[in-house]
Amino acid sequence: MNDDTGSRRHPRFEINQPGKVVADGETLDATVVNVSAGGAAVTGTPMISNDMFIELHMEGFQKMEGRVVRQVGSGFALAFEDKYDGNKEARAAREDFVKSLRGRETC
């Protein structure tokens, strides 16, 4: 468990689940290491630039969209944002997905 877990805005859950990243029209295989209502850590992709807008796809869930906020090891941290302000359905679906992870180990 990370020492800064208590300072996070949203609990983050380890999932280590295969996914796909769509960046600049290219689809790349990736692993979603962890996820929260506010973002995710993704590995296994070639260098993706900070501030790049991407789509993240995971089995059993619709796409999640966001911006790369920093590089982390062999991947990046993604802050979710909805392409269109006020997209309450996308935000609610993402929060429901994260709620379904309750009981998994937090990081």
Q: How does this structure look, described?
A:
This protein is mostly beta strands and 107 residues long. The protein has a single domain, classed as Beta Barrel (Thrombin, subunit H), CATH 2.40.10. Helix content is 11%, strand content 47%. It contains one helix and six strands; from the N terminus they run E-E-E-E-E-E-H. Strand 1 and strand 2 form a beta hairpin. The protein starts with 12 loop residues before the first strand and ends in an 8-residue tail after the last helix.
Mean pLDDT: 81
Order of helices and strands: EEEEEEH
User: What is the CATH architecture term?
Assistant: Beta Barrel
**Rg over C-alpha atoms, rounded to the nearest angstrom:** 13 Å
Q: What is the assigned CATH homologous superfamily?
A: predicted glycosyltransferase like domains
CATH class: Mainly Beta
Q: Strand share of the residues?
A: over 45%
Structural class estimated from helices and strands: mainly beta
Helix count from the secondary structure assignment? 1
Low-confidence stretches: 1-5
Q: How many structural domains does the protein architecture include?
A: 1
N/C terminus separation:
5 Å
Let me know the number of strands: 6
